[in-house]
Write a structure and sequence with these properties.
353 residues; 8-stranded mixed sheet; 18% strand
Length: 353
């Protein structure tokens, strides 16, 4: 009876052993793995049979060893700090080369040289005057040297815009050289230059004038000068520019009292044979680049030779039409200065001798 009881209790013993074995399993706490445990199972006893030799203990499979939890790695201590070298004081070094040339400072404006004969000290008196003409009063700007005179006189004829400040300035330059200068307004017979508000209008009005009408008003200017006690009546010359250069040749061919004429780049008379009537020497001034006007030089020169007239002319290299006008775009300082010098020498010879 006792043997049977022990046999029946064997399963209970085995169950308890299994419970104890599970309770002894290693926990997930990170600790060193325990040594493997051997569980011995007691087999049930066999009646009348001799007790067999106990079977070798069966090894319980080793439970899987959990992967060790990685421990936080403690970084190695940093190497001792090396003291940084003391930064020397900043040294100014030249800037790197610029990729483009630096901007140049603005060039100061160059002072414009005064025109030839510019008046720096006035040795004259000036006034607007009127004198009687065939078609009515003729307007002019008269400048006379200081002193009692008598002086030689010059009639100054304007360009194709009518009398303007530049024309008056040229008259003052001649007065400073010892001439009574009369800058005539050849628009007088159509109302005068002041009637026209633009240069275009003045030019259009000039184109309505005839050579006869121009010659009549220029004759009136000569007559006026001859009545002035400060003028040498037999020493009257005429000079003109552009349209006035052509009118200068008109005066030379129509007015016998004209002692000397200086046309600056002026067109020829409509009838080239009118040069036969010229009574005084003529100096022609031209610009090399003024092809339209220069085309007439051979015909004028030929006519002067034909009628045995005193004619000389000068062509200035690279100079354009109207190169003497220092208020215009074609102004050529070098040519203007040389022409002024030549003009004064010519007038000195023929009006002051």
């Amino acid at each position: 009876m006792k043997t049977r009881t022990i046999f029946k209790m064997a399963p209970v013993v085995m169950l308890m052993a299994a419970v104890l074995l599970a309770a002894c399993q290693p926990s997930a706490t990170p600790s060193p793995a325990p040594s493997p445990t051997t569980v011995v199972t007691v087999p049930p006893a066999q009646a009348p049979k001799p007790t067999p030799s106990p079977a070798p203990p069966t090894a319980t499979p080793k439970p899987p060893t959990p992967a060790p939890t990685p421990q936080p790695t403690t970084p190695p201590p940093p190497p001792p700090a090396t003291p940084e070298p003391t930064t020397p004081a900043a040294v100014t070094s030249p800037p790197p080369p610029a990729t483009s040339p630096p901007a140049k400072p603005p060039t100061p404006p160059v002072a414009k040289a005064p025109p030839p004969g510019a008046v720096t000290q006035a040795n004259f008196t000036a006034a607007n005057v009127n004198f009687t003409g065939k078609a009515g009063d003729v307007k002019a700007y008269e400048v006379r040297p200081n002193g009692s005179g008598p002086f030689p006189a010059m009639i100054v004829i304007h360009e194709n815009r009518g009398i303007v400040e530049h024309t008056r300035d040229v008259a003052r330059r001649f007065a400073n050289q010892g001439y009574v200068a009369v800058a005539i307004d050849l628009l007088s017979r159509v109302g005068g230059r002041e009637k026209f508000t633009t240069d275009t209008e003045a030019t259009a009005a000039l184109n309505t004038l005839t050579p006869d009408g121009v010659a009549e008003d220029l004759q009136s200017a000569v007559d006026y000068l001859k009545t002035r006690n400060y003028v040498k009546a037999d020493r009257i010359g005429v000079i003109g520019y552009c349209w006035g250069g052509g009118s200068t040749l008109v005066a030379a061919t129509r007015i016998k009292e004209i002692r000397a004429s200086v046309p600056y780049y002026g067109p020829n008379p409509r009838n080239i044979d009118d040069v036969a009537n010229i009574t005084g020497p003529v100096l022609g001034i031209y610009g090399e680049a003024d092809q339209r006007i220069n085309a007439g030089i051979p015909a004028l020169e030929g006519a002067m030779k034909k009628y045995n007239k005193s004619f000389e002319y000068k062509i200035y290299p690279a100079a354009l039409h109207a190169f003497f006008n220092d208020t215009g775009g074609n102004y050529n300082p070098q040519a203007a200065a040389e022409a002024w010098t030549l003009t004064l020498a010519f007038l000195e010879k023929h009006l002051k001798s």
